[in-house]
Design a protein that fits this description.
This protein is an alpha+beta fold. Helices cover 30% and strands 11% of the residues. The chain has a three-stranded antiparallel β-sheet, with no helix packed on it. GO terms for molecular function: ATP binding; protein kinase activity.
Length: 90
């Protein structure tokens, strides 16, 4: 079985951060021969676009709570996997 690493990257960067348990959590920056970045499709665009489009309306409290919980759960998952996002906005 091939070994693999969890890779964290962000748009606009020419490097990736790779954390390995074998290296006691050290993080290395380099350009691997092959890498895959998987992003979840978000219909309707970014959170910022949603907020800007509806800036004259008050965001429903339930929607605000759901957005905050989804964001915190996603960041928590990345933290557990030792991935640093580096590009959280809005």
């Amino acid at each position: 079985m091939d070994s693999f690493y969890v890779v964290g990257a962000s748009l606009g960067n020419s490097y990736v951060k790779i954390s390995s348990e074998e290296t006691s959590g050290e993080v290395y920056s380099f350009i691997p021969a092959q890498a895959c970045c998987v992003l979840e499709f978000v219909p309707g665009g970014t959170l910022k676009k949603l907020l800007m489009k509806n800036r004259r309306k008050k965001l429903d409290f339930g929607v605000a709570i759901k957005l905050a919980l989804d964001l915190s759960r996603g960041l928590s998952y990345l933290y557990v996997k030792k991935i640093v996002h580096h590009d959280v906005k809005t």
